[in-house]
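Ops channel
N.P.: pipeline sanity check, posting one input/output pair.
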């Protein structure tokens, strides 16, 4: 049985969180002398809302989720790190990371001195639930599932992920950084069903805001409270909150970009497949294409010389001789195809 109380680290359960000036007084006043700020206005002389209420309300509306189920981090990377700090005892606990996947889960594990159990994805980059559940032990606190997966681009099979959610008593973190680029539903609507589900999304991809660093974590209000308890009080700047809110109020623009990117992805896939140096283009529900080529290292270096930068993933498990290519604008994709054709 899932028991959040047992999962949270004892020191986190017992700690008294920092109480900021903005926590202690939340109303409207004419004179603020409580936070040692500079009184002269620059537009940014005041601390930001530590709870990011306006952004969460808008996000909640878009995602059909109560704001109490939303945590905002300085990128998803902050949410990933806080999950480790909240739930994994350094030197004692472990997490399960299917491979290949997004590299930050393992880096965060290492930073927090948390052991990693790795399970290889299938040759189609899908989950092997049996292998995953078998390798977990009583100290396995988190399982990371990235869907669509980076670097492969495919969605993980929903039923398999649900089997893991049902059987595993720790938290299952489903990273949906690329969810906007698929027409399949994500896991957010399942939050009510699975108390151990954590879903990560981000404004860095479809929303076009990698520069402001805003990651979103959806989970039960109890899990969100734990993350809020340990986060730095003012982790999202006024600038990021303003820019995020502006973008969220323009959902049409995001939808148009996504439509364009998906159309470009499909076009690029067809063009890549026609090139003699391309062996295979893997199915993608993301904004990139994992592409197996004749000689990834050589082609990568030659593209660099021609001013086109892709990601060489040849050293990654199951990705021998693979390049990960982000879908760019029509013009950028044409340049890529022109340069690859020239090779
Ligand atoms: C699967 C996945 N999750 C998270 C991130 C990072 O998100 P953020 O920019 O919100 O930290 C990336 C970035 O490439 C990613 O591929």
């Amino acid at each position: 049985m899932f028991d959040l109380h047992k999962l949270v680290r004892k020191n986190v359960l017992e700690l008294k969180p920092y109480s900021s000036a903005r926590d202690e007084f939340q109303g409207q006043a004419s004179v603020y002398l409580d936070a040692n700020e500079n009184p002269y206005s620059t537009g940014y002389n005041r601390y930001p809302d530590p709870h990011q209420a306006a952004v969460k309300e808008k996000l909640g509306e878009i995602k059909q989720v109560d704001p109490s189920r939303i945590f905002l981090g300085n990128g998803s990377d902050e949410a990933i790190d806080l999950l480790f700090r909240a739930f994994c005892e350094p030197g004692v606990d472990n997490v399960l990371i299917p491979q290949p996947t997004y590299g930050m889960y393992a880096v965060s594990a290492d930073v927090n001195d948390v052991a990693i159990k790795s399970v290889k994805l299938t040759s189609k980059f899908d989950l092997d639930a049996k292998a995953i559940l078998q390798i977990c032990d009583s100290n396995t606190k988190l399982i990371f599932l990235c869907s669509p997966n980076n670097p492969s681009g495919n969605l993980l099979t929903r039923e398999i992920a649900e089997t893991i959610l049902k059987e595993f008593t720790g938290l299952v973190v489903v990273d949906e950084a690329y969810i906007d680029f698929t027409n399949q539903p994500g896991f957010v609507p399942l939050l009510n069903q699975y108390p151990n589900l954590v879903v990560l999304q981000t404004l860095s991809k479809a929303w076009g805001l990698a520069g402001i660093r805003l990651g979103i974590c959806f989970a039960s209000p109890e899990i969100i409270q734990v993350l809020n308890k340990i986060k730095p009080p003012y982790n999202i700047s006024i600038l990021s909150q303003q820019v995020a809110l502006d973008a969220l109020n323009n959902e049409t623009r995001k939808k148009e970009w996504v439509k364009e990117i998906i159309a470009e992805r499909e076009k690029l896939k067809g063009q890549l497949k026609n090139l003699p140096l391309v062996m295979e283009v893997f199915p993608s529900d993301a904004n990139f294409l994992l592409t197996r080529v004749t000689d990834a290292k050589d082609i990568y270096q030659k593209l660099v010389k021609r001013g086109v930068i892709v990601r060489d993933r040849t050293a990654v498990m199951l990705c021998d001789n693979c390049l990960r290519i982000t879908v760019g604008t029509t013009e950028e994709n044409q340049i890529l195809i022109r340069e690859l054709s020239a090779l």
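N.P.: looks fine end to end. The chain has a mean pLDDT of 97.
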